[in-house]
Amino acid sequence: MTARVVTLDLDGVTDKAGLMDRCARDLRLPDWFGRNWDALADVLSDPDLWSGDGVEEETVVVVRHWDRYAEAWPDEWATAREVFAQASALTVALALGGSS
To answer: What value does the CA radius of gyration of the chain take, rounded to a whole number of Å?
Structure first.
């Protein structure tokens, strides 16, 4: 099985609204995405959104430049990490290092 890799780049994100907007843009979420934690959990666990043209393919989301957001908003970041960890339709990985 091959993996499709999608990058979620949080560079410049300064608040929850920005995080939700970046998720919508980088992950190409549907227009109906509600831009809240429950809606994010729902889309990350919806296998129909992540299947590739009927081909079984794992989707891996690599989150880059998350550290500044995590430092500025630790409670929101904890919620985001929980949502990412519970995603059942894809795998979410945090990129480490300054240039990752």
So the answer is: 13
